[in-house]
Amino acid sequence: MATALKDQLAHDMDAMGRRARAVAAVLATAPRILKDEALRAAAQAMRAQLPGIMAANHEDLAAGRAKGLTAAMLDRLTLDERRIEGIAASLEAIAELGDPVGQEIARWQRPNGLDIARVRTPLGVIGVIYESRPNVTADAGGLCLKAGNAVILRGGSESAYSTRAIHACLVEGLETAGLPADAIQLVATTDRAAVGHMLEMAEHIDVIVPRGGRSLIERVQAEARMPVFAHLDGLCHVYLHEAADPAMARAIAVNAKIRRTGVCGAMETLLCDASVAATLLPSILEDLLAAGCEVRGDAGVQVLDSRVVAACEADWRTEYLDAILAIKLVNGLEDAIAHIEAYGSHHTDSIVTMDAAAAAAFLARVDSAIVMHNASTQFADGGEFGMGAEIGISTGRMHARGPVGVEQLTSFKYLVRGTGQTRPG
Amino acid sequence: MATALKDQLAHDMDAMGRRARAVAAVLATAPRILKDEALRAAAQAMRAQLPGIMAANHEDLAAGRAKGLTAAMLDRLTLDERRIEGIAASLEAIAELGDPVGQEIARWQRPNGLDIARVRTPLGVIGVIYESRPNVTADAGGLCLKAGNAVILRGGSESAYSTRAIHACLVEGLETAGLPADAIQLVATTDRAAVGHMLEMAEHIDVIVPRGGRSLIERVQAEARMPVFAHLDGLCHVYLHEAADPAMARAIAVNAKIRRTGVCGAMETLLCDASVAATLLPSILEDLLAAGCEVRGDAGVQVLDSRVVAACEADWRTEYLDAILAIKLVNGLEDAIAHIEAYGSHHTDSIVTMDAAAAAAFLARVDSAIVMHNASTQFADGGEFGMGAEIGISTGRMHARGPVGVEQLTSFKYLVRGTGQTRPG
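YS: structure for the whole thing
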């Protein structure tokens, strides 16, 4: 019996993959006007179905409370009128984005008259595996559709009812526009084995995008037979160089830590040149401690404020995702870059300095997806980059690096236009 | 004893990987002038070492004859003065290419004043596994160096002496320029187990590029734990549309098949609209048959020339890489596209037509790395695309698609330049 159920799941997942692959060819050449109509109709459906979505969300919340989810988890799970309107508006924002498919990335002529263009094409089929945030359903579905990809969504069991309700609106949008409903499929079962099947379906799924906690990302990176767009850690640094403007250093350091402590672009370690620590750090420590942030520092930081607790080696390696900050004094640019390369996660790192040469060296040499000068690491976000929505941030070096928006969900091909050229020799 | 040797190999390969990773950081910021100096000095070293390289090549050829290699294999293996000069000149041509590292791919400003640039960075460490052509040693080593990557080369055992001699010249070039010799490492052992180790070294090797026959590519694609830039097949089509110019159709079809039959861009299947078969095909068949090409066709083609043998289903799936061509009659654009999608390998496909709408539809809808209009598929080559040298052609959809030149051997990062911006909300 257990085996029969297992076979049934494998069969269902495979069938889902085949349907996705089959519609991918339709989506690849779907005109922009239809994709945008589907997105706008889905947004309208969400507004029309507001009571139904709220009711579904109440079921998830009730189950979540019964399961003893934390307040933070319940908050992530909660949909209210404002959040639902936000999700609908983001579908409309995706409709406003330019269509990446067919976009010319480069074009040049050869001496023999051949005209060569590099144009964007869809990637094919995207798999998205996420946890409790129901808005990912709409964002991921919308972005994949805009980029001409079919998508298979696998939401977390905690948000199963909400996810199904939002998915129904996306399907309604597709149907309104006359696009195949299989363009955005949702894995209906909450059986965890379904994730394992998705990760093995390299024939049907071209890329997997996991969204969620560390254990999900680790599992996906270890098991996926196809490329993965993800980041495991966001161990972001701000480095206060000796030529930093004190007011700017204070504003950036405090914002990078405190604005939101749970996002991947939040600063986790503050590096400060020892030569300016006594000038720069006291006001920053004041602000952080006043905001309820725990500060862990090396000996040089501890002497500046008695409330700083001793940092240990593990602190330089920890992504707190919380109101905790590790501070280390360094001896100049080389030392700072060496620390970031040794302990960082190649996500987002920022230097604060008025010294153009130091900034240029930092930007050139720090090998992270996003390297900043005089800006808060909290800007590490596709929306803030002007990409519209994002499906995640990648710290991989292949294909997509940094925020993953519609362009990163495309591949490309070469179009070679001739007038009868044949190749000599 | 066998186990001890196995452990020794694993240890040696791992040490090689660590050395590559260690020098990758040096190469990533190596100035263009040093990389180009190394390339030019290597070319000079090859000219200076001509007798030594020839002698090494003689050893390979003698061993190859003793092993009973085919004439074609021996030819691929043979180096003469002209070929060695060609290899040296291609190193100099790589030096002439622009430095991709640090190149701005895009740059834009945000309303809050943030300046965002997307700039190329090296990928890291490339592994290249190839068979008998000794020139791959120089091309792959040179391209990886130019793109700021460390590279681990694994040549075929048939060309072991020649490869070592060429590799020594590359190392001499690196040393002349003051760059680390470990930038271009060669796996010294001809033990086949070394390939298995390379494919598992995901920690030390970021991308694998296999160059060689189908069995090598299949093994690499199946076993590699890291991304692979490769194409398994080059089952390229030319489609003669009903609005094709007859003279152009003849020139392109004959060139696409006959110029070189053993390259991946050679046409393997010719599709022709049935409505124009009697007009277009006779002269093409004449040329092909006169050139010694075997022609296999469906019934409609066979009636045109008694020398055409019957094609079977397997012919539409076969990459002959030889003077054999399959010809099929189709009923218009839709039929041609459907055949290419069903049987092709997504490498290079070309339409011959004077009808702009048909060409546009073909270019938009055929999902191959290279899609051509009125040009011979034999132009599927990085050099012909103006990329300088190429390390191969990829039919994968991720990161690199089509010819893999220096740009495709890079990743990118975002540089965000601010004036103290912090993120609100």
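YS: worth flagging: The mean pLDDT of chain B is 95.
IM: good catch. Also Chain B is about 45% helix and 20% strand.
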